[in-house]
Amino acid sequence: MIFRLLACVVFCIVFLLGLMLNTKAQFNDSIHHHIKYAATGIINRTKTARSFVVNNGVYFSMSKKNLSFNSNASYIYGRQGEKLTNNDFITGFNFDLYKNTRKLYYWGLANYTSSFSLNIINQFQAGIGPGYNLINNENGELVISDGILFEAGELQIDSINTKNYNTFRNSLRIKHRWVINNMLSWEGAHFWQPSLSQFDNYILRLSTNFNIKLQKWLSINAALTYNKITSTNRENLLITFGLTVEDYF
Asked: Of 2.40.10.220, 2.40.160.40, 2.40.400.10, 3.40.140.10, which CATH number belongs to 2-248?
């Protein structure tokens, strides 16, 4: 019941933010949209064994002078022989206030995660905080942000037992993006989220992508993702290759 309620809250916030962006765009500056789809994976097949991991992600953003909105959804599925290794779904959104016009800005987010590889049955996060632009231009971005998250979820402790919990976390993020000659790009977002009540209970998320642009709308993509959650003593590391399709309008 709690996750249905949280999902309804997230939907309402997303709807209101989208309405706010479109309404303000009619009276002030223009609004810009960006949509991206990335399909990456690795397949390994020999005479005696077979393994594969596929990762599909969809990203959508709207931005104007003082407010930007970003949403994403990704699904990772993997098997090694007959054994399931990944069945992971992540979705969420975030918004930034004054990020494009000031060094100091404000952010908010909401995320939902279900991960077989990390023993997460359900996990919901929502929070707000400040951020600081060290670099923010067309060819480079370096941002540090911090804030407080509320987290509630259900974990798979072992093959039989599960655990429901909630906690507050500090969320430290470093985000970077670099573009070379409008053809090569390297970007990443890295999070460290310790619980405020138990410091050795933390989440570590590292994500880096490297893109080579083939066309304005098509790129070759290599991605590295690492996740660790100490409450289940689980971690995963994915290195995948594939294609990215995107459009600005």
From this structure: 2.40.160.40
Cα 152 to Cα 167: distance, rounded to the nearest angstrom = 7
Q: Fill in the DSSP letter of residue 9.
A: H
Give the span between the Cα atoms of 106 and 146, in whole angstroms: 10
**CA-angle at 67, arms to 123 and 136, nearest 5°:** 95
Question: Is the CA virtual torsion 16, 63, 55, 171 positive or negative?
Answer: negative
Per-residue pLDDT of 74-107, as tens digits, reads 999 999 998 999 999 999 999 999 998 999 999 9
| pLDDT tens per residue, range 187-218 | 999 999 999 999 899 999 999 999 999 998 99
Q: CA 157 to CA 135: how far, in whole Å? A: 42
Phi and psi based region of residue 182 (left: phi greater than 0; alpha: psi -120 to 50; beta: remaining)? left
Give which of 98, 210, 191, 190 is closest to 151, Cα–Cα: 191
Q: How far, in Å, CA of 23 to CA of 167, rounded?
A: 36
DSSP string, 15-30: HHHHHHHHHHHHHSS-
Q: Determine if residue 185 is left, alpha or beta; phi over 0 gives left, psi from -120 to 50 gives alpha, anything else beta.
A: beta
Query: How many whole angstroms separate alpha carbon 57 and alpha carbon 78?
Result: 15
pTM of the model: 0.84
